[in-house]
Amino acid sequence: MADVADKGGVMDVLDFSQGVGMDFTSAYLFGSSNGTDFMDNAEYRQHWLHEFKTFQIQLPQERAGGEVERWCFSMCEAAERFIHSGELREEQLGTQPVVYGRLAQSLRESAKSDKPSLKPTIVAVASEMLDHLVAGHETSGITLTYLMHELSQRPYLQDRLRSELLTLSPPIISPASNDATNTDADSRLPSPRSIDALPLLDNILQETLRLYAATAAQLPRITPFSPNGTTIDGYSNIPGGVRVSANAYSLHRNAAVFPQPEEWIPERWDAGDERSEEMKRWFWAFGSGGRMCLGNNFALQEMKLVIAAIYTNYTTEIVDDEGIEQADTFVSAPVGGKLILRFKRV
């Protein structure tokens, strides 16, 4: 990003944010040395995102063995080699294939064999890993895009956020790209707990997730068959086999809970205890219950860290936001497929 700012500062943040989401997700799944480097490798990032658009509309038999599946499989194989190479060390927390290793181990234990066939295990794990990769990069990238779009219209709010971010210890201050004095100490990060405790940052992210839920479409369920039917929110005797659904778009626009629901108002999350609890009850950006997003805490911390790194060091302004409205699809990215911002170093 320092290079972007130094060369005029114009960038498509939807493209970049989805790359950031992929780098975070793949590093957690496979270890940082086995994951992607989409932030730096813009050429392959853009190629992969293009391939993924095709992947999204293909049938399973059309996807089989394609580039996206081969790409995921290669990271699984790299993680497997890493685990068995003896390179894994307790002190190398940043490079451990945390999720892949745990899931592969669990599958091996469930197979009741010390030496199961490697291929079936990797195929089973790869299927799960691809689900995580697809879900993790796209939704966080969309949320970061809309958050930066709103902040870019409010320079005063960027200033307030920067003041808050500078209270972190250490603050996430990036040296200039030609600064040779960068040391390991400079690259240390504040604790996740301290980032999570920043009220304005939290309000901004919560409000973006409310107004621009990345998966705002219906999540259908079928009522169970029972002698007395099913009761849902006071509606009784609903017979079995009826399709019912809820969606974040509608829940987040309940004006009784969220006054001026179509407006982006981060301050609403400063409400008192009773009002705050009611908003949290209606907040559904990650779903709820047994099938809610299992990566919600990871995603929140990732996005807060990225926003903290950006707005500690840069201001943003809109260059081209044509087509910024959300698509009416299950995963709701901007219809224009882009957001061009200018970054200026503070």
Give a brief outline of the structure.
This protein has helices at 2-6, 13-30, 42-56, 60-63, 67-84, 98-110, 118-152, 155-165, 192-196, 199-211, 248-251, 273-282, 296-313, and strands at 10-12, 218-222, 230-232, 235-238, 243-247, 314-320, 340-345. By secondary structure, it is mainly alpha-helical. The longest helix has 35 residues, at 118-152.
Distinctive features:
two-stranded antiparallel sheet, 3-stranded antiparallel beta sheet, mainly alpha, 49% helix
Structure description:
The protein is mainly α and 346 residues long. It has 13 helices and seven strands. The protein has helices spanning 2-6, 13-30, 42-56, 60-63, 67-84, 98-110, 118-152, 155-165, 192-196, 199-211, 248-251, 273-282, 296-313, and strands spanning 10-12, 218-222, 230-232, 235-238, 243-247, 314-320, 340-345. It has a three-stranded antiparallel sheet. Strands 2-5 form a two-stranded antiparallel ribbon. A two-stranded antiparallel ribbon has the order 3-4. Helix 6 packs antiparallel against helix 7 (118-152). The longest helix is centred in the middle third of the chain and has 35 residues, at 118-152. It starts with a helix and ends with a strand.
